[in-house]
Design a protein that fits this description.
The chain has about 210 residues and is mainly alpha-helical. The chain is built from eight helices and two strands; from the N terminus they run αββααααααα.
Length: about 210
């Protein structure tokens, strides 16, 4: 076989890598698009096509709900977080409000007894009220936290939220977060396609030269 002309070799060395790069870029871009689209199932010849996330949204909601409930909310997480709350400043304010704002006016309004109500007495009553409230707070928090754990269905809440999540909004969020990664995937597809095309063109040139 005659050695191919220079322009034929140049054409093979340029065209195949460029075509391969274009195909690689387009393929990866299409794969990224198909994460989100089409939103609803579409019939293309013998295949039904739908975006991965729209198709698996319900399954994702169930799985994420399970993970959140078993992994993130395990070992009585809600109860532990409630126990960490520093309520002392609020309890002090509560005791002050009860004694000085509510109890004091009523005591002073009682005939004869009202004359005995002074700031020192109210201060002592405030101190006693605070001690009583603080003493009852921990058992109350324990009961409340246990009741909250029983009442809050974490898995169901997460499932409902994800299932109802707007897909356009979700796509926008994912694209903003993973913009660089998606771009890198597209470029990588082009690079691999270029390399494959270059190898093919070299093999074809060698085949024609032998």
């Amino acid at each position: 076989m005659d050695i191919p002309e220079t322009w034929q070799i140049a054409f093979l060395l340029v065209a195949f890598p460029l075509i391969g790069a274009g195909i690689g870029w387009l393929t990866n871009r299409l794969a990224i698009q198909m994460l989100f689209r089409p939103r609803k199932p579409r019939k293309i010849l013998f295949w039904t096509v739908q975006g991965l996330i729209p198709r698996r949204q319900e399954e994702m909601a169930v799985r994420v709900g399970e993970i959140v409930e078993t992994e993130l909310f395990n070992q009585h997480l809600i109860r532990e977080e409630i126990r960490k709350m520093d309520l002392h400043p609020h309890l002090q304010q509560l005791a002050t409000n009860i004694v000085w704002d509510r109890l004091a006016p009523r005591l002073r309004a009682i005939p004869l007894l009202g004359n005995l109500v002074n700031d020192k007495l109210l201060y002592n009553l405030n101190k006693i009220a605070l001690e009583c409230i603080v003493g009852e707070t921990e058992p109350l928090l324990e009961k409340v936290s246990m009741e909250v754990e029983k009442q809050i269905a974490v898995r169901k809440i997460v499932e409902d939220k994800i299932h109802a999540f707007d897909l356009d909004q979700l796509e926008d969020i994912v694209r903003k977060l993973a913009h660089k990664e998606f771009r890198s995937i597209e470029i990588l597809g082009a690079v691999i396609g270029f390399a494959v095309g270059l190898v093919q063109s070299l093999l074809m040139v060698l085949a024609q030269m032998t």
